[in-house]
From TrEMBL:
Residues 570-676 form the Malate synthase C-terminal domain. GO terms for molecular function: malate synthase activity. The keyword Membrane does not apply. This is Malate synthase G. It is an enzyme of class 2 (transferase).
Length: 701
């Protein structure tokens, strides 16, 4: 049970209230009573608006469901469908020509192109790893992954053959990014201390210190470390010990899809970790190889410029924080007898914490432009974006921050946002710094929006569907049309297979060629490797050459499996694939509070799973059930067989609780509910059921 204290009519978890007053407000010299009174006033205005927006989602969905049910068995009429969506207000008129007016944006977002990480905010160790992934060793990234096409390292210490292949490949990269004069190769470089480095373009050398030379290419830095005493450096003809790439320019500390935060205890941990990032004193100690290791935030890196002056480069990613969407409430605070909307809670708390960065109170600092960066997910259309804009206005007033200090990233991952993206950008045009495409949530919403229209195509076929190609192209095109290039990020989604870096290096460069100046990767190592792509392609030049924005026709094409006659084997394969992925994710969420992890798929390939992937799997099964493609009995049979597989995959985890022998457990019960109650879930979201079953699990424990 939450132990509440009352502040200006708000019931606040006592530990959270103490944290806010002593650790957040006191360093800012803010009056606690005035803060709580302002918070209460804010809730009086925005909690009812939040509820009204959620009701509008339900009303629109009910009308769309009825439209499809009335036309069951008839061919889909695309023209009539679009007219209907306009009539009910699902589609709104396009705004006139406009250019975003966002100001005071850090270069990592506005004028640089590079990888982006998303990390669960509840895990301090992961959060530190991600924040420190601004710089990554190219030697380490090649040595430990399949990105290098060479025999794997032999066990038992450093493999010199593997190391030689790593060094050769890294120096080939240097030949591309920082070419030497007269056609010379980095592999042939010797006597650097005496002869220097003969660059084809001397201006690429932008600094040095006593251990390294610093170069710049396509806006990104490359640090070549020299050390004749280092085990690698002493055997290298030029004494090169490592090549460090500027990698994860930005990182999103995630309060949403990658965490399981269901109560005041969880939210307090999230806010403490965010405060640790902002103050610069976050640390985490853990056992590694029998020794206690303490991880802290990396300091800035110091260099001397060619002109003789000293300068610093950030040692850490520029940090965003992702608040939750509009849907959920949280018991951490109550107002007017009800839990307050969690999105409002996050907006106030994360902004108040970030105000310490604006005030210059951190050890290192995050934004050098005095901005606060919040990513806002799961917004449905321009009204919800306008709500966020208005909310951030009032939060700024509450914290005495200049207007538009709080910047917003709009995640284009719901169908009503995609279809009205220009209007969504217009609603936040003076604070927007980020749009991106998220195939996973966007697919979940695609299925749920049209769940009554008929059975959907198989998940794998979705990747080649008309709506997806239009979605990806429209996102970039609309962003460029309204002036995001040079002012904001246009991003692409996650590479979900952290062990398949070789394949990532082949495929993910396509995100740059599509015009994205950032894209998500699953690990610091992946960020280092993906950084190579930004040296091979100049995204800002690519953006200049992109064409017209595709129309709405393909985007509104429903991915129905019309005319498909699946075999029993095909249906079984799809069902098993969905059930296995669903169970493998849900059991960790409910039993262990793990919101994102590498979960083995049905073929034992580790994939990064979060609630977005769960939304697809649960909605797809619910859709096929609704239209009679599969039966309830088939689903139960598949769940039982896949539970055995998931149990086997987790056999090495001593904290794991088996599914197969516990069909009444919270985890197995949650999995069944997500399927059998899937049609009625708001927008097909998984959070209401996950939160309810996780709270039962925590109460039982």
């Amino acid at each position: 049970m939450t132990n509440y204290v009352t502040r200006a009519g708000i019931e606040v978890d006592q530990a959270l209230a103490t944290f806010v007053e002593t650790e957040v407000l006191a360093p800012l010299c803010r009056d606690g009573e005035a803060f709580w009174a302002g918070f209460a006033s804010l809730l009086g205005e925005f909690a009812p608006r939040n509820a009204a927006l959620l009701q509008k989602r339900e009303d629109l969905q009910a009308k769309i469901d009825a439209w499809h049910i009335e036309r069951k068995g008839q061919p889909h009429d695309a023209g009539a469908y679009r007219a209907f969506l306009e009539e009910i207000g699902y589609l709104v008129p396009e705004p006139g020509d406009f250019t975003i007016g966002t100001e005071k944006v850090d270069p990592e977002i506005a004028t640089m192109a590079g990888p982006q990480l998303v990390v669960p905010i509840l895990n301090a160790r992961f959060l530190l790893n991600a924040a420190n992934a601004r710089w990554g060793s190219l030697y380490d990234a090649f040595y430990g992954t399949d990105a290098l096409d060479a025999p794997a390292a032999r066990p038992g210490g450093y493999d010199e053959d593997r190391g030689a292949a790593v060094i050769a490949e890294a120096k080939r990269f240097m030949d591309e990014a920082v070419p030497l004069a007269d056609g010379r190769k980095w592999a042939d470089l010797t006597d650097v201390k005496e002869r220097g480095i003969p660059l084809a373009d001397p201006a690429q050398c932008v600094g040095w210190n006593d251990k390294a030379c610093l170069f710049k290419h396509n806006g990104l830095h490359i640090e070549v470390a020299f050390d004749p005493e280092h085990p690698v450096g002493k055997t290298d003809p030029a004494n090169i010990a490592d090549i460090n790439l500027e990698a994860a320019l930005t990182t999103i500390a995630d309060c949403e899809d990658s965490v399981a935060a269901v109560d005041a205890e969880d939210k307090l941990l999230a806010y403490r970790n965010w405060l640790g990032v902002i103050r610069g004193d976050l640390s985490e100690s853990f056992d590694k190889g029998g020794k206690t290791v303490t991880r802290e935030l990396a300091p800035d890196r110091m260099y001397t410029s060619p002109e003789g002056g000293e300068f610093a480069l950030p040692g850490r990613s520029l940090m965003f924080v992702r608040n939750v969407g509009h849907l959920m409430t949280n018991p951490a605070m109550r107002w007017d007898g009800k839990e307050i909307p969690e999105g409002i809670l996050d907006a106030v708390m994360t902004s108040a914490i970030s105000a310490q960065d604006v005030a210059g109170l951190g050890k290192y600092g995050n934004s050098r432009r005095g901005s606060i960066y919040i990513v806002k997910p799961k917004m449905h259309g321009p009204e919800e974006c306008a709500f966020t804009n208005d909310l951030f206005d009032v939060v700024e007033d509450l914290l005495d921050l200049p207007r538009h200090t709080i910047k917003v990233g709009v995640m284009d991952e719901e169908r009503r946002t995609s279809a009205n993206l220009a209007a969504c950008i217009h609603a936040v045009m003076d604070r927007i710094v980020f749009i991106n495409t998220g195939f996973l949530d966007r697919t979940g919403d695609e299925i749920h929006t049209s769940i009554q229209a008929g059975p959907m195509m198989r998940k794998g076929e979705m990747k080649n569907s008309a709506w997806l190609k239009a979605y990806e192209a429209r996102n970039v095109g609309i962003g460029l049309k309204h002036g995001l290039s040079g002012r904001a990020q246009i991003g692409k989604g996650m590479w979900a297979a952290p062990d398949l870096m070789g394949q990532m290096m082949i495929e993910k460069i396509g995100h740059l060629r599509a015009g994205a100046n950032t894209a998500w990767v699953p690990s610091p190592t992946a960020a280092t490797l993906h950084a190579i792509h930004y040296h091979r392609e100049d995204v800002f030049e690519i953006q200049k050459g992109l064409g017209e924005v595709p129309g709405l026709e393909d985007l509104l094409t429903i991915p129905l499996a019309e005319g498909t006659n699946w075999s029993e084997n095909e249906i079984g394969e799809e069902l098993d694939n969905n059930c296995q992925g669903l169970l493998g994710y849900v059991v960790r969420w409910i039993d262990q509070g793990v919101g994102c992890s590498k979960v083995p798929d049905i073929n034992d390939v580790g994939l990064m799973e979060d609630r977005a992937t769960l939304r697809i799997s649960s909605q797809h099964i619910a859709n096929w059930l609704l239209h009679g493609v599969i039966s309830e009995g088939q689903v139960i049979d598949s769940l039982r067989r896949m539970a055995a597989k998931v149990d086997e995959q987790n056999a090495g985890d001593p904290t794991y609780e088996p599914l197969l022998a516990n069909e009444d457990s919270p985890a197995f019960s949650a999995a069944k509910d997500l399927i059998f109650k899937g049609v009625e879930q708001p927008s097909g979201y998984t959070e209401p059921l996950l939160h309810a079953w996780r709270l039962k699990k925590k109460a039982a424990a």
